[in-house]
Amino acid sequence: MEHLYQFMQVVLNYLRLIHVTDFIDIGIMAFIIYRVIILIRRSSSGQVAKGVVLILAALWLSQLLKLNTVNYFLGKTVEWGVLALVVLFQPEIRKMLEQVGNSRLGNVFGKAEAPDEIEHAIQQTVEAYASLSKSKTGALMVFERKNLFDDSIKTGTSLDCSVSSELLKNLFWNKAPLHDGAVIVRNGRIVGAGCVLPLSGNVNLSRDLGMRHRAGIGASEHSDAVVAIVSEETGSISVAVGGMLKRHLAPETLERLLRNELLPKNEEDESQRFKLFNLLKAMKGGQRDGEHKGE
Ligand SMILES: Nc1ncnc2c1ncn2[C@@H]1O[C@H](COP(=O)(O)OP(=O)(O)OP(=O)(O)O)[C@@H](O)[C@H]1O
Question: Coiled-coil segments, which residues (predicted)?
Answer without folding.
Answer: none
